[in-house]
Amino acid sequence: MHNNTSPASHSAGNSHAQTLQPNERVCYFAPAMSRPSVNLAPHKTLQDDWIEFLRTRRGPSALLLKCPYCYERPTFTDENDLWMHVRKNHAVHIPKDDSLVKQFRGTVLAKSRAISKEKANPPEQTKLLNDGDIKLASTPLTASLLEDLQNAELASASATASRRPASSLSQGKVQYPMDFGSRGPSTRGKRLFNPSDEALSQAANLGNVSPSGANASTRVVQQIRKRRSYLSYPRNDSPMPIDKLASSHTLESRHPSARKASRRLFIGWPRSDANSSVFRRKAVKIIFNGKECHARPDSGSGTDICSEEFAMQQGLTISRNQEDIVSFKLGDGSIIQSIGRVLVLCGLPSDWGSQERRWFCVLKNCVVPVIMGGQFLKKIKLYTKNKSLLVNCPAWFSDMPTLKYLGASKHWINFSTGGHTIGACADTGSDLDFMSLECARNRELNIDYRSRRQIGLPDHSTSETVGRVCTSVKVGAFAEFKMEFHILPHLPCDAIFGEESLEKLDAFNTCVETMDDYKDSYEDQPWYHPLNTLVDLGPIAAYLNRLWRRPAPNDTPQQEHDKCMDAEIHLGNKHNRSIRRISDESERRVAEVAENLRRQTFDRGHDNCIYCVGGVS
């Protein structure tokens, strides 16, 4: 005996039964070939029937592709069909570049899926059926009110399940309970309550309902759990009060731009080279005239130095007698004098018994307020046993220049490069490594004259490096490694190892030698105290050059000759680079001949030069 319902009606999802007439023949179709009955009512079009058929075959939640460029959007079941439609009717939108066609095709399909999803999932209504007992008043949501809403939904779902017959599984799907996000005010970002499991146990004990009722109650339980997880975890896009923000998340972790601004504000430390972001210059805390302050340690300086401004702030009386004035020779060969001396009681904060009276030379302009020399550092064994006394330079040091170097002739490091042995001054006051121009030329090192930097001196005047040398060096028992030296003319020593290089080598415990009886070959007058403070002001810029350059005070003939030779080398390198950029071979040869003639003329002018042939060193 055949069933009274048509297979086609089952495949279309119709719930009513169809009765066969006496003379009507029953037709059976295979499940894959079943077709819905086409309704030719005036208010339905063929397109609507086609969509209904596709929904039947693919399910009510399947996405159908719609053309994003058509006003009355046709529906397609395959991506290729949609793409052929776009190519045929909307070719004006397709890019001409073949490499972009594939990306454009993906964009069209994405838009089509988005449109289909909006059509397939319309926004839920504010109020659903069987919702009469639930009020939609926009009152503040509390724990008790939320529990009342959950209990009302459970009761509504149980009543609906008890009224439905057991055969309702084939009649369609049960309506979902109302979404929590559509009811009442938004409560994201705050956990309102800690709900109990009474509602869940009530839903789990509904064992006397039909299978459809069990599914409905299960959905309600899942909805309640979803709400709990929704309330338990705050969202990232929810606004939080300042006190919550400070306790749970810092301002820097939530806002990267604020983190960058805080670095600039609190660190305030200008970068001198690529490693400045890792290495921080060090300072030591001392007791200066009964007050704690920061001082820059300089292992190369034989005297302690302070600035006039800092001495006046401390209320000290400066002794300005003739025996109190000391001459200093700077790193570029110029001479400055101190304005006097002060006698100050100083020592370490951690050891009040170490305090003693020390003389400080006072400079009118100094790059740092206080500089402690090598004698004090040797006494407290700062770089050998008490490196824990070193601290990072404070934030208010940000106004001082980036690099400081005070050179002297007591701590030295012997290293070899290119088959030559060179003695370098070990100085913790410098962040960069320097080499004199004479040393680089005598060792025939390859100098890159294109790299130049602006260097600040202790009296806030400026000088310029003439190049850079990158070479392999061998220091003591260490393996050979690369080092970069900035070339500075008239440096009082052959080379300088800066603070960062000394820290990496742990030089004062491994390779530094003390030479008290060493006589600097570049010292013209032995009573000059070396004060080779070299402040790195970064790469040279033209406007800084014009703004900061000062005329050299009465250059010696040797200095004028060296400047002339440096200018000639720089000009020759510049002309050679210009000649190599000439594309025409004949023009390039003419330029090369002219450059050679100019160079020969310059060389002939120095044939009898006493500084070139070695008459004057």
Kindly describe this structure.
- The protein is α+β, with helices and mostly antiparallel strands.
- The strands form five sheets. It has a six-stranded mixed barrel with strand order 3-4-10-5-9-8. The protein has a six-stranded mixed barrel with strand order 12-13-19-14-18-17.
- 34% of the residues lie in helices and 18% in strands.
- It has 19 helices and 22 strands.
- Among the domains are: 47-118, no CATH class; 282-392, Acid Proteases (Cathepsin D, subunit A, domain 1); 412-517, Acid Proteases (Cathepsin D, subunit A, domain 1, Beta Barrel); 538-614, no CATH class.
Q: What are the defining features of this structure?
A:
alpha+beta; single chain; 6-stranded mixed barrel; Cathepsin D, subunit A, domain 1; 617 residues; 19 helices
Q: Structural class of the helices, strands and pairings?
A: alpha+beta
Physical arrangement of strands within the biggest beta sheet: 3-4-10-5-9-8
Q: What is the number of beta strands?
A: 22
CATH homologous superfamily name of the domain at 282-392?
Acid Proteases
Low-confidence stretches: 1-20, 22-43, 125-139, 166-214, 229-277, 398-403, 517-526
Radius of gyration: 43 Å
Distance between the termini: 126 Å
Brief sketch in words of this structure:
With 617 residues, the chain is an alpha+beta fold.
